[in-house]
Amino acid sequence: MTNADIGTALQQAALALNGQRPGEAERISAEVLRVDPRDARALHIFGCAVLMQGRAADAIAPLEAAARIRHDPEIDMQLAAALRQAGRVDDALSRLRRAIKRQPPYPKAFYELGCALASTKHYDEAAEVFERGRDIAPMVAEFSIQLGRVFLERREFAKAKHAFARILEISPASHDALSGMALAHQGAGEHDKAAEYFRRCLAAKPDPGTWLNLGRCLLRLGQLDEGYDCFRVAVRGDPKRYGNALGMLTKASRGRFWLKPSAAARFLQTK
Asked: Which domain holds residue 5?
């Protein structure tokens, strides 16, 4: 296989990977690696293809080899993902912490590290990383979205509202920002404002969870009939949602309680 053949093969492998055909990408990159086991691009594609097929542990070695040969932040991201999916969370965090020190700064590294920290409940460090990422890439909305979600977890609702408001100034129809703003107002006990934002969410993208949250806000506001209707819409067409709906109804300060599950089901099924 000549250098030109290798280049063509790796281009085909990359196209297969981008086209969600990881098996094909794995096969082609493996053929290249039999010719040149130290080809960084082939190692990278092979590791990504294996990772995409759910074999995280098998993806680590080729991605580590690629990272040693080529100092590329994208390889670091994929390696960190493989480590995390393989259960080596501390190693993944260590890799990502090194990645954010690269110059010039690589915004995706900050995003991935922040998400990894948030998923392990390291909310203080996650907030710091997202804020640094936002300073580097102020037009990347996901930094403010994730920062707002971290503030929600920390029950810092005023800060959460500020983070989501930044996005809504740029993109007033952002479903993630509208949902986050609604949850921040709801957490702060501002149910009238929360209901307003939940309604805007439903106008952009109806979903059962938002109907349930709107229903809970309306019950808090004493708008019982409207609130019950929201719960009915949420469970419509899927009996599996009854559990969440009933849980919210029975726990709500102005909710309902039934001695028989069948009575609860009838209540949610009928107007």
From this structure: 1-81
